[in-house]
Every structure is written in structure tokens, then in C-alpha cells.
Amino acid sequence: MKARSALLWAAIVLLTVLPLWFAAAPPAVPGAQAPAAFSGADSRAQQAIGIIAPNYKPWFAPLFEPPSGEIASLLFALQAAIGAGVIGFWLGMSVARERQRRCAQPAAGQDAHAD
């Protein structure tokens, strides 16, 4: 059992360290500069488009531009929290509905055999 636990811990460490190691790799687009840490995919996409098509003009502008990066992060976190709440509510209701259905089945089966 100890060998299995050691393998499990080694897998956990590898799954934690390898993505961080690969994230520190140089940019995949030749000639692009490495973006700032935690800058997201948007800045990498803008850099790639700037290299591939320097005369590209966006089709439209955003409807709402947050005044600062902190507010943008707050809105993103709020969106994630609302989504997690909806998924958690759905999951909880599904589990409760299934439990209630299972508890109701034996009672219905006993009533049918009582005659």
C-alpha cells in the first residue's frame, strides 16, 4: 500500500509542477515577446495577430470597458462565482431529487404487496 501511496503523491507533484514548467516556456509564435505573467490569452492573441497581419483592424469595439484591471478581475471572479453557484445548485437538486426518488420507491413497492 505504501508504494501505491508514493506513486499517487508522485503523480500529484508531477501534475502540479509540469504545467508550471511548461507555462514558463518561451512564446510559440516566432518573433513574439513573452507576455507578462498571468496576462491571459488575449494579449498573446493580439501579439500573434500583430505579427501575422500588421494591418488588421478589429470588426467592433467592446460595449463596456472596465476602468481598471482590478474591476475587470472582480467582474470575472463574480461571473465565475455565479456560474459555480448555478452548477452547485443544479447538482444539489439532482442529488436530492434522486435520493427522494429512491426513498419513495421501496414505500410504493411495500404498498403494492400489502394486498
Task: Give the structure's gist in a few sentences.
The chain is mostly helical. Helix content is 69%, strand content 0%.
Characterization of the model:
The protein is mainly α and about 120 residues long. The protein is built from three helices and no strands. The radius of gyration is 26 Å and the shape is flat. The mean pLDDT is about 80.
Highlighted features:
single chain; 115 residues; mainly alpha; 3 helices; flat
SSE topology:
Blueprint: H1 2-23, H2 41-52, H3 69-113
Please give the share of residues in helix.
55-70%
What is the SS-derived class? mainly alpha
Range of strand content: under 5%
- From the spread of the alpha carbons, the general shape counts as flat
Termini separation (Å)? Answer: 53 Å
Average pLDDT rating: 82
Spans of at least 5 consecutive residues whose pLDDT stays below 50 are none
Rg: 26 Å
Q: What is the H/E order?
A: HHH
Number of strands: 0
**Biggest sheet architecture:** none
What is the number of helices? 3
